[in-house]
Amino acid sequence: MDLNPPKQQLEADESIVEVSIIMPVYNASCWLDECLQAILSQDFTGSMELSVFDDASTDESIKVLEAWREKLGARGISMLISGHKSAQPRGVGYAKNRAISQSHGKYFCFQDADDVMLPQRVRLQYEAVLCHQTSLIGCKVQRLPEGSTERYTRWINNLTQEQLTTQVFTSHGPTVIMPTWFCSKKWFQEVGSFDEGGKGVPEDLLFFYQSLRQGGGLARVDRCLLVYRYHEEATTHSVTEETIWKLRVDFLQERVLSCWENFTIWNAGKQGRKLYRSLSRTNRNKVKAFCDVDENKIQKGFYTYEDAKERPKPKVSIVHYKDASAPFIICVKLDMTAGSLEENLCSLQLKEGVDYYHFN
């Protein structure tokens, strides 16, 4: 199925399109009217197009999209719609890449079909990207239903500009979350395309890390510009924790641990030990101690890596955090200790991104 406008028309329009809204679609008919109305209501005065790729929807998504073509056209927003009717969807990465390949904008605004952009989104992120040509630009969000994923939403919205970079190893995923991405076409092409591995592949995190590897920046418009919907059918639920864990460990070793001579793992419990076991032998040998606040763990005195191939089996001491020395990898979940973790870190007068990084 190819519902694109004629090639001649696209070539004529190509030079004047400032922003392409990139939208993969899969069985999104119940969300699309609200999503498209929000695109229609943007206060951006430059040229826009909506580039959609339908990933084998079995509902009325295409019908709903086509019903909006005339309304969007009257507003000056052209629609590019293509897709396939295979028995199975090919995944979000595949759909995004196809939507991008048919688009003509100088800048990309990524939009999930189940989310709703506020009227200022395109304008404010466009203004930001003009100053950050090699960055992924995000924004604050409103979670719907209200109160769902409360800690995650608070984390998204409260990160400082510095923490967009320092907290890229945390389990929450990209610090600039995919549904808010805005970037230049030139930078996207420099980084490369999304992974097309399909269901269970975190294509956003893979691209995010690759962008950082190539020197890309991160920035955020500090206003709520997107209603970010939570529901059980969201594709993010198909990605396993173990897949994300491995990607994070590998990136941490590459970007941080390779530069440190030694370090302390803050948490002698399950998560800290799991990190230790996940490290390469070289980086395990750099771990000088675990630290904790739990007296039972501290009194035990050490952790033995029973499954290690080395003989004798590695033993790592466990000390109170006040007796430990930087740098640290923090394996305690943020916003889960009634502020005690944050107070303890503050008491040591440490600098995030220099003396410690959060991993959980």
TrEMBL record:
Family matches, as Pfam families: Glycos_transf_2 (PF00535)
Residues in Glycosyltransferase 2-like domain copies: 20-191
SUPFAM superfamilies: Nucleotide-diphospho-sugar transferases
Domain of life: Eukaryota
A GO term, aspect molecular function: hexosyltransferase activity
Gene3D superfamilies (UniProt xref): Spore Coat Polysaccharide Biosynthesis Protein SpsA, Chain A
UniProt-recorded name of the protein: Glycosyltransferase 2-like domain-containing protein
Chain's gene name: b3gntl1
